[in-house]
Specification:
Layout (H helix, E strand, L loop, with lengths): L22 H10 L4 H19 L2 E4 L1 H16 L11 E5 L26 H8 L3 E6 L19 E2 L2 E5 L5 H8 L5 E6 L5 H7 L2 E4 L19 E6 L2 H12 L13 E3 L10 H11 L3 E4 L5 H26 L6 H10 L4 H24 L2 E5 L12 E4 L2 E4 H7 L2 H6 L3 E9 L2 E8 L5 H15 L1
Parallel strand pairs: 2-3, 2-6, 9-10, 9-11
Antiparallel strand pairs: 1-3, 4-5, 6-8, 7-8, 7-14, 11-15, 12-13, 14-15
């Protein structure tokens, strides 16, 4: 199968076929006979096998199911049944999301051998759109960590530098897209779990508005904060996947008139100057002002209280009966969440209400708010303490610092690659009002086109 010219920037060395072609092109080629669904599935399976020893992105590859679905897509297209741009396109699914007949291990020894009986609602929608499910991707254990290097299946490695983290918790999904193994992947985001690995690996990750897509069939981390979101190499591809998931019609024109307010990231958490410059330069002339948002540091702490309390409630019985099946880091994090008092939780909810009012006021003056996605480049595997400049930091706290406030507020946010710093990806995060996913992605697409 012939590949298209490489029109994407920032792919890791050796990236595969799907790093060089977008979903819209694939859709056109499938309908003109230039490629077949089976050829795409076979290519994806081959790329997955080639990259697996390097980055450990997958926990399950469903060769038989993927090829059967590809053949079904071919028969439908030949008969004039067209389910949309994802029809016949390979997609990977994070391993906290149920896919009928495949294991859902959630990166944990607790779920070894567990087979999903039904598709998650998000997977069902992708199948209805004709997508071909290739397999399940690695995740930080129970999706409870931003580094992606704690899993019963082993760590996911960064395709740009295998000694570095891929980010978490949707680590395998981001790595699979970055390597060109698949054009699209389905992840989850509670405090940053699509956006953080997207930033680390150099792809696009969307956290949608809270409640915009059903989380039925997704193993919970913290139910009031959990979302399901698409990941892709480009915002344009992410938009096609998002509209397939939600049944909407994509806006095909990129937004060139958005007004963006810049949030100085150091007001939230210490941020590497080169990371700040890359994100700010990428946003370019769309930034029309600097926007102070009070209490974002406190909102970071509120995230820890809400997420920690909710995650402990999900796991309390397992912690009591089989604590040895957890990794020590995740077990300790879960137990710490159980120590929060109800009054602390209530204060966190009250703070959320007050800050949300402030942010919504800011979003009446600006279309979107912007800041880096993460305050540093991807750290080495297993590193938990580092420095930004002269300031010591806790790595998991830092990775979540710029993403988690928007999770607490339930707002949509997208991470889009902003270039390389010291050879590793960095990213810009755009935050919008509820229901603005299409406009967020259109604006991100505009920025990607402008800088390509």
């Amino acid at each position: 199968m012939q590949s298209a010219p490489d029109t994407r920037c920032g792919a890791p060395p050796g990236a595969g076929y799907f790093a060089r072609v977008g979903v819209a092109e694939l859709a056109e080629w499938l309908r003109t006979g230039r490629v077949s669904p089976r050829a795409l599935a076979e290519t994806a399976l081959g790329e997955a096998s080639r990259w697996q020893p390097v980055i450990n992105a997958f926990v399950t590859l469903d060769e038989q199911g993927a090829l059967a679905a590809a053949d079904q897509a071919a028969r439908e297209l030949a008969a004039g049944v067209d389910r949309g741009p994802l029809h016949g396109v390979p997609v990977a699914v994070k391993d906290v999301i149920d896919v009928r007949g495949l294991p859902t291990t959630a990166g944990s020894r607790h779920f070894a051998g567990h087979i999903a009986q039904e598709d998650a609602e998000s997977v069902r929608r992708l199948r209805e759109a004709g997508a071909v499910i290739l397999g399940k991707t690695n995740t930080h254990e129970f999706a409870n960590g931003p580094t992606g290097d704690r899993s019963a299946s082993g760590p996911t490695r960064n395709p740009h530098a295998p000694d570095r983290i891929a980010g978490g918790s949707s680590s395998g999904a981001a790595a699979a897209v970055a390597t060109g193994t698949v054009p699209l992947a389905l992840g989850t985001d509670t405090g940053g779990s699509t956006r953080i690995p997207a930033a680390c690996c150099g792809v696009v990750g969307l956290r949608p508005t809270q409640g915009a897509v059903s989380t039925s069939g997704v193993f919970p981390l913290a139910p009031p904060l959990d979302t399901v979101g698409p990941m892709a190499r480009t915002a344009a591809d992410c938009l096609l996947m998002w509209t397939a998931m939600t049944g909407g019609q994509p806006h095909t024109s990129a937004s060139t008139s958005a007004r963006i307010g810049w949030i100085p990231p150091n007001s939230v958490h210490p941020t590497a100057p080169a990371v700040t410059r890359a994100a700010r330069d990428f946003a370019g002339d769309l930034v029309t002002g600097e926007v102070p948002v009070p209490h974002l540091r406190e909102l970071r702490a509120a995230y820890g209280i809400i997420q920690g309390s909710e995650a402990y409630a999900v796991h309390a019985e397992r912690l009591e009966t089989a604590p040895e099946l957890y990794s020590a880091e995740v077990r300790d994090r879960l137990r710490a969440g159980g120590e929060f008092q109800r009054r602390e939780y209530d204060r966190a909810l009250d703070l959320r209400k007050r800050v949300r009012s402030t942010v919504m006021n800011r979003l009446r003056s600006y279309d979107f708010l912007a800041l880096p996605t993460i305050p540093l480049i991807a750290p080495p595997l297993d590193r938990r303490a580092d420095r930004i400049g002269a300031e010591p930091i806790d790595v998991p706290t830092a990775l979540l610092a710029l993403t988690s406030p928007w999770s607490v507020l339930g707002l949509p946010a997208v991470s889009v690659p902003a270039g390389l710093v010291d050879g590793l990806p960095t990213a810009l995060q755009l935050v919008g009002p509820p229901g603005s996913e299409q406009r967020l992605l259109a604006t991100a697409e505009c920025l990607q086109r402008t800088t390509s």
